[in-house]
Design goal:
about 450 residues; TIM Barrel; binds beta-D-fucopyranose; single chain
Length: about 450
């Protein structure tokens, strides 16, 4: 890949107030899975299911952030980030998903929020990053319409508890990943394959989002509310009518079935017909509550192929053989990121925050104690340049968060894929900032100098 010398193309400055951050999620970093009254989530159960996760890994210990949180906040302070996006673990604060609350779990996020504010870092709180309490899954999970109400009660608990100090709220992370891989292609918890349940889950998660926005508006004065969507152009693996049809349906399920109803008030065409049996009077208005910004998680394009053995007749194809990819095998294609930002701007007309972007690999600490990760620096450099290009062409991007602060439990890939800008030794739990951490700190410093000079 061609890497520009500087991620700051000349003549383009960041708008004042642009937010630089890092992202994590609860199950991927906290560990302490059985500590202080936390209940099991669907991911604890999946990790115990043979074959659910590479190497039989689990988030039982992860980065042990639950016990090492002050050290992690200090690392962030060292980077100079403005903001930290984290998620609350629903089963840590409500072990059975509804009813009784767990004080030690609630206290943990109090300590985190206070520590962040002391360090001058703004907390961005995401209510749901995939770890549904197992007790709710046992009652039907997202396929049950009541789940939207359970979620709203949980959102209210968090809003009342943290809303005095937390003003940036996110209803969900990557709606389409956890619904599609949870209910149609079984790569994530709960690992069900059932088209009807998938459609029901889509609709009920949309209802939960709308209910969450209402709760946050009511309970948190001055809340700035967003939802995080993974959007990636879907490209047919090869240009055949079957692959084109597969790509069109995957595009709906991946890119449209959440953004469109939430922001435009309707489902895209193929899904609208299929989902009708689950939609009740008034639902579409309940879903389309105004939000303040659009959260985008983006890594690279995806390739689709017809796969009649899969629930919806589509499957994941391969990138063209000569494409640059990063450690996880995902295609590196910064123009698609630029174009995605412009598409979102035109289609949804909201300020955009890039809430995840990053590069996986298998980094290790060298004999001199350094973690050298030029592949990550190259990726982040060209993706930042693509973002700047989109901004220069009119995309209203207000912030950028790297995925991730720490190497962590990377879902079905276990600990085999490292996305952190800080290396974690999963034996000793020692943290070592990688070269990319220094690169990111420099980028932030340079961007702020740009703004000051403007
Ligand atoms: C995103 C997830 C995040 C992490 C990155 C690599 O899809 O939101 O938790 O796994 O991918």
């Amino acid at each position: 890949m061609t890497v520009p010398a500087s991620p700051h193309p000349p003549g383009v400055t960041y708008p004042p107030g642009f937010t630089w951050g890092v992202s994590t999620s609860a199950y991927q970093i906290e560990g302490a899975a059985a500590a202080d009254g936390r209940g099991p989530s669907i991911w604890d159960v999946r990790c115990r299911t043979l074959g659910g996760v590479v190497n039989g890994d689990s988030g039982d210990v992860a980065c042990d952030h639950y016990h090492r949180m002050p050290e992690d906040v200090a690392l962030m302070r060292g980077l100079g980030v403005d903001a930290y996006r984290f998620s609350v673990s629903w089963p840590r604060v409500m072990p059975r998903g509804k009813g009784a609350v767990n004080q030690p779990g609630l206290d943990f996020y109090d300590r985190l929020v206070d520590r962040l504010l002391e360090a001058g870092i703004e907390p961005w709180l995401c209510l749901y990053h995939w770890d549904l309490p197992q007790a709710l899954q046992d009652l039907g999970g997202w396929a049950d319409r009541d789940c939207a109400g359970w979620y709203a009660d949980y959102a209210a608990l968090c809003a009342r508890r943290y809303g005095d100090r937390v003003k940036r709220w996110i209803t969900f992370n990557e709606f389409s990943v956890f619904t599609l891989f949870g209910y149609a292609i079984p790569w994530a918890a709960p690992g069900i394959v059932d088209r009807a349940q998938h459609l029901r889950a889509i609709h009920h998660v949309n209802l939960a989002h709308g209910a969450g926005v209402d709760v946050l508006r009511d309970l948190v004065p001055g809340a700035s509310i967003g939802a995080i969507h993974n959007r990636q152009v879907v490209i047919p693996e090869t240009d055949t009518p079957e692959n084109r049809a597969a790509a069109a349906l995957l595009d709906e399920h991946w890119n449209l079935v959440f953004c469109d109803p939430q922001i435009l008030g309707h489902y895209p065409p193929q899904t609208a017909a299929a989902i009708e049996p689950y939609v009740q009077a008034g639902d579409m208005a309940r879903i389309a509550r105004p939000v303040d910004w659009f959260g985008l998680n983006h890594y690279g394009p995806i390739f689709a192929k017809a796969d009649p053995a899969r629930a919806w007749g589509y499957g994941w194809g391969d990138a063209p053989p000569d494409s640059p990819t990063h450690g996880v095998g995902w295609a590196i294609f910064p123009d698609a990121f630029r174009d995605e930002l412009l598409t979102i701007q035109q289609r949804y007309r909201l300020p955009i925050v890039v809430t995840e972007n990053g590069c996986g690999g298998s980094d290790s600490v060298g004999p001199d104690g350094a973690v050298v990760d030029p592949h990550r620096i190259a990726y982040l450099t060209i993706y930042n340049a693509a973002m700047r290009e989109a901004m220069a062409r009119g995309a209203d991007v207000r912030g950028y968060f790297v995925w991730s602060l720490l190497d962590n439990f990377e879902w079905g890939s276990g600990y085999g894929q490292r996305f952190g800008i800080v290396h974690v030794d999963f034996q000793t739990l020692a943290r070592t900032p990688k070269d990319s951490a220094r690169w990111y700190a420099d980028l932030i410093r340079a961007a702020k100098t740009d703004i000051a000079a403007a």
